[in-house]
Design goal:
The chain has 148 residues and is an alpha+beta fold. The chain contains four helices and three strands. The protein binds zinc ion (ZN).
């Protein structure tokens, strides 16, 4: 198991140092800000949703390694997925982090790298911040696609 957690650790460090999908999104329909006061993590998620699918997304912000890595992994995991699939993925991810048995039909893929966070309850909010912000963005009022 320790080899596996080493791999996971490398993945988290890699994503925290070189976050994927980081920056402003040129064409976006939804966005939301998230803040984790316990740790000081802050981020904004931008989405381009078309026909109930997350066509593209990016995030900006600053925070601890866990929050940045989780946001990076989240954007990779949900890009191109339907809102329904994203909902299921968030549920499974949340279950893993809170020590529940996730739905076996929802493969977590690289998100599983963060499963070790479940052992550190105070860091769970760091790992779920990007997901809660994603959810808030999905539920925010859609704005016409803008180009900056
Ligand atoms: Zn944090």
């Amino acid at each position: 198991m320790s080899e596996l957690s080493d791999l996971y650790q490398e993945l988290i460090i890699d994503h925290s140092k070189r976050p994927r999908n980081f920056g402003q999104l040129d064409s976006k329909t939804h966005h939301a800000d998230g803040h984790n006061p316990l740790c000081g993590d802050k981020l904004t998620v931008f989405l381009l949703i078309q026909e109930d699918r997350i066509v593209d997304l990016k995030f900006v912000g600053s925070g601890c390694a866990i929050s940045t890595a989780s946001a990076s992994l989240m954007t990779d995991a949900v890009k191109g997925k339907s809102l329904k699939a994203v909902e299921h993925l968030f549920q499974a991810f949340h279950d893993v982090l809170t020590g529940k048995e996730p739905d076996a039909n929802v493969p977590l893929g690289k998100l599983g790298a963060l499963s070790g966070v479940a052992e550190f309850p105070v860091r769970v909010k760091c790992a779920t911040l990007s997901w809660h912000t994603l959810k808030a963005a999905i539920q925010s009022e859609a704005k016409p696609t803008t180009t900056e």
